[in-house]
Amino acid sequence: MFSSLDISASGLSAEQTRMSVIANNLANAHTTSPDGMPYKRKLVLFSEVLDETIENSSMPFGGVGIDKIVESKTPYEMVYDPSHPHADTDGYVQYPNVNPVEEMVDMITASRAYEANIAAFNAAKTMMSKALELGQ
Question: Which end of the chain is flanked by fewer CB atoms within 10 Å, N or C?
Fold first, then answer.
């Protein structure tokens, strides 16, 4: 009965982590480094979490979990700016591989998924409440 709440809660937690990583990417979108290695975009990889401990169930319950947070393999952006303090000998600066437009689209998607999990959680809560009212 409470598995639907657990599933929605795991989705909320996963999307919250995803939004935090996206916010971190946006905050570091123009961060350069004197050692030539700018900030690398991070991505959240989800994994399916199954709870197969429920006896006599043909359908296991579960949710979503964070598998890992990985760095993007997209190449850095090279910008010619010889006046920049982190420019190389040819005058180029390596900027992070973060595209703010792409990050904002990802943020909207994560936000909508978060909202969907809240709606599912509230629907399950309402159904449980109505079921308890029937028992009175």
Answer: C
Q: Count of alpha carbons within 13 Å of 60, Cβ hemisphere only?
A: 8
Tally of CA atoms within 13 A in the half-sphere of 62 that contains its CB: 11
Q: What is the pLDDT along the chain (136 residues), one digit of tens a residue?
A: 567 888 888 899 999 999 999 999 999 999 988 776 899 999 999 988 776 555 555 555 678 889 999 999 999 999 999 999 888 889 999 999 999 999 999 999 999 999 999 999 999 888 888 888 887 7
Query: What pairs with residue 44 in β-bridges?
Result: 69
- Kindly write down the DSSP assignment for every residue of 21-49, as one continuous string: HHHHHHHTTT---TTS-----EEEEEEEE
Cα–Cα distance measured from residue 72 to residue 23, given in angstroms and rounded to the nearest whole number: 15
> Where along the chain do its domains lie?
3-134
